[in-house]
Amino acid sequence: MGALEDEIPSSTTGKKRVRRRQLKPSVFLVRDRILLLAIFLGIWELTATWLVSPLWIGQPSQVAARIWSMALSGSLWLHTWTTLLEAGLGLLLAFVVGVPVGILMARFKYGAAVAEPYIMALYSMPRVALAPLFIIWFGIDLLSKVMMAFSIVVFIFILNIHEGLKTIDTDLVDLFRTMRAPPRYVTRKVLIPWIEPWIIAAMRLAIGSALIGAIVAELIGSSKGLGWYIENSAGRLDTTGVFAGITILVIIAALANSAVGWVERRRLGWRRS
């Protein structure tokens, strides 16, 4: 018993050491990322102070002051919420449409072979060229921005899900079928876990694309949103306003990607262990 009691504290200590070793890389990573950002902002600030006029490249201190004044006036929340709503609805619609289409393409191979050249042609076409048409068809309100974001994002989901299901282990599926597993059980236990990494990878790409779609539509025709704010600032040669809008977009994209990364660690963390 005494020997066993001696082992318990050492085992607990060992677990603590393992946790510390796992914690250190993440702590160092966050520190180095903050350091890199500080260096970049410092170089930018010094360049705008001593080498190049802020009229051309902006200045971090002025950009921060502009964002703060936008927050106080309420315009920050108005423009940010407008763009988030447009991009978010376009992303959601693309997910709802793109995932089932990708699954159907993997299920019906002949139909996919017939449709694939047209899908790839539409995917390769610069969808930005459709923005004026969407403004004509759907007006300058919310719907045109949502459809613009949808048109850019939907193909990302279709192609990722299709490719993911093409790589599925057919022997595993056949094994479940020989065991008379119901189709719903096979879908829940095999197909969904298999394409989950592909869905998350598609989501990472789709976030930036949805924002691009919303911003492009706002640049062409809108009365609010971050794209409108950037365009309006550029028209007044307000470089600080342009960089303020871009900075807000970068923060939104970074936070959204961090959220997807958190989901990935929660759902797929076992793949890295």
CATH superfamily of the largest domain: MetI-like
Low-confidence stretches: 1-9
Distance between the termini: 34 Å
Rg from Cα = 25 Å
Mean pLDDT: 84
- What is the SS-derived class? mainly alpha
**Major β-sheet profile:** none
The CATH topology of the largest domain? MetI-like fold
Question: What pattern of helices and strands is seen along the backbone?
Answer: HHHHHHHHHHH
The name of the CATH architecture of the largest domain is: Orthogonal Bundle
Task: Offer a few descriptive terms.
273 residues, mainly alpha, MetI-like fold, 2 domains, 0% strand, disordered N terminus
Would you mind describing this structure in some detail?
- The chain has 273 residues and is mainly α.
- It contains 11 helices and no strands.
- The protein has helices at residues 2-51, 54-57, 60-73, 75-107, 109-124, 131-138, 142-166, 170-178, 183-220, 226-235, 239-268.
